[in-house]
Every structure is written in structure tokens, then in C-alpha cells.
Amino acid sequence: xxxxxxxRFAMSIPTHITTAxxxxxxxxxxxCLLLLGAAHAQPAKGFNxxxxxxxxxxxxxxxxxxxxxxxxxxxxxxxxxxxxxxCHQALANEAMENDDLNLALEHLNKAIELEPRLPTPHAQxxxxxxxxxxxxxAQPFLEQALKLDNSQLDARAMLGExxxxxxxxAKAETHWKIVLEAKPDWPGLAQRLEKLRREAHIxxxxxxxxxxxxxISFGDVLTEATxxxxxxxxxxxxxxxxxxxxxxxxxxxxxVVLYDGAQFAEATQSDPHVGALFDxxxxxxxxxxxxxxxxxxxxKSRLRHEYVHVVLRHRLGSKVPWWFNEGLAETLSxxxxxxxxxxxxxxxxxxxxxxxxxxxxxxxxxxxxEQVSLAYAQSHVAVAQLWNEGKAKxxxxxxxxxxSPSYEDALKSVLNTDYATLEKLTETATNEE
Length: 433
Fold this sequence. Notes:
By secondary structure, this protein is mainly alpha-helical. The protein folds into 3 domains: 15-198, Tetratricopeptide repeat domain (Serine Threonine Protein Phosphatase 5, Tetratricopeptide repeat); 207-312, Glutaredoxin; 322-430, no CATH class. The protein is globular. Helices cover 64% and strands 5% of the residues. A 5-stranded mixed sheet has the order 1-2-3-5-4.
């Protein structure tokens, strides 16, 4: 679900303020002040106009200070409070551009305090929390934005996603239908709604089983022994993987939808070789197409693999290269398969390996099935080698992925490894059977 990164705000500009802005740009602040003073005998309006000049110049902290001075002189004027709220929203944008969610929320709460009936700061806070996967905290902000202005399509789309993640298919469908009626070309939403309806048809009568950090849905009664086995795999993954990656423990309940083999194929429409997937929920079959339960080792490997994706999404959102996402999931969920080493070694010998630059994005749909298999194997070998040589640095590497201008820069800064070196490490690993 695409979320706008920033909300932009505009003020109507009187002619004398436009002239003052020109004077300010030309390095004549005293003339600017004289013009504003002449335009307004009332000091509050003068401060408000100067704040407007600063706002249009992008000097939001200075603008807020001037609006604050105006507010002290004339607290009864609604426009001044509105301008202060807009400044706080603009400063929240700046905070998010510096990845400071707490500061952004502080500004937005001040904007809401100043203008509680203005829908945009509610929607903005909800969008930021939604993007940070803090869905329970996002929901009341988004609901209030919609209550104040039911044309807020961004808020409605996100509320639909939150309902979908909570398995409330009916509420999600209601929200998304309204969005599509207003804007039929909303990116990806028609396909999302089709997916929801397909899943709701299959999962409508599924039973739900909660644990400390997970909630399982399944279409049949699970015995205590089976439940205990699955929850043990999941809760162990929660502790072990979260600890190894730097104490990353998602606060939201992780939804896990389990199917029989036929249901999984129908619900996910995935390729036959896909054993499980994560699309905001962990989805996995626990039986094969003949109805027999999977072996514990197979189920454990698949669930741990998908849980690594949960952790990386919680920590980084989309700011993680595909090769690392899949390679780490494989590394922390299964032992290296010798057939994978042979596949990658053969690719190196025939000069058919894939560049890690190319593998920063999901290769599905761009490569042949054979190349996709190679992409998974190559990513697994590469990340396993990095893990074996420096797993203690992986928390710092995740931080670098979040902050660095490129993924290769992140590798260089933490592991002193560029993509050329990573290719050499990967090739070396294939010769160490």
C-alpha cells in the first residue's frame, strides 16, 4: 500500500507579503519589516505576516516563532492558530526526512492541540505510524481524520489495510471499495481487493488461536499438540532471531494464516515451488496436497524463514535489498544445501551469476525460473558467508541500510565490503564444501 511520504501545506499570500518575500530574498530584511509594519498597525498581524514570509521560504522554525508571538498578542484570532499548526506539520515533515519519528509525532500532537478539528495532522500522524508498522497506534489517528473529513482517501486506504491485517475482511473491503469508487486508478488497490476477496472466501470460517506474539488462523480444529508445536516454533523464532539481529521485537501481533496444501495454492496463487510467504501476514501450508502433515523440520524452516521477513520489515520497512532479505531468511532458517553451492559454483564457472546490484529488487517476473532459483541460491551463499564472518555487525548493518544513500554504501561502511568483494566471497564459499 503506497503511503505519501509527506504532506505539503500552502497558505494564500497577499500582495504585500509577496513583495516582502522578494525583499527578504534580496538581503533586505529591514525593508521587509518596514513594509510589513506599514501594512499593519496591529503588531499581531505584522508578526503573522512575517511568519507567513518565513513559512513560504521554508524557514518553518522561524515562522513558528513569529506565529507564536502573534498568538500571544491576539490569541482570539483562529488564523494564527491554524498557521502555527501548519508549521508543526511542516516541521514534522522535516523530522521524518531525518528519520526522527518521535519528533515528528511531537510536532503533530502540538498541531492537533492547536487545531483539533483539522484532519490533516491526524492523517499525517497515522500515515507515519502506519509506515513504521505501528498499526494499533496509527488506527485512532486515521479514524479521527476520517471522522473530521470522510474524503481523506489516504486515511481510508490505510484503515482498510489495518482491518485486512487484523483479518476483518468485511471492514477492509468496505474501506477499499469507497477508495476505488472515488479513485478507480488507486495504485494496486483493485488487485489488493481481489486478493482480499479470494482469501475471505477461503478463510471466512477459519478458527483463531492467539499466543503471546502471534495469532494463528486455520480452517480446522488444531489439537493441543499441534498448536503447541507450531507456537513453540514461532515463539522460539521471535526470541532467537530478534536477539541475534539486535533485539528487534515487533510490538504488533504477527498474523499467521495456516492452510492445507490445496487452500494455500488457491489463496496465494503462488508458484508450485513456493513453500510459504509473507505479505504482511505469514502464510504457510501445514499439510501437503494429499492432506498429510508436513514434517516438523520442514514446517520449522518455512516459518522461521518468513519470520525473518517480519523482523526486517518491522525494522526497515522496504529499505532492504532483496538479496539480503532472502539470503538472511535462508541463513537463519536452514543449513546450507550442498546442491545450492554446486549451482552457484557452476554459475560462476559459466559466468552466469547475477549482479547484486540487479538483485537489490525482487527478480520475479524479470528472470526465468532457473535464474530465480539461482538468485535465491546466490543470495543464500552470500549472506551466509557474511553472517559467518561478522554476524555481530549485522545490527549495525541494518542501521546502515536504513541510513545510507545506497545498499552498497551500507556494506562498505559496516563490513568493508563492496559488491565486487561480495561476489568474490560468494565464489570462495562455493569452493569450501
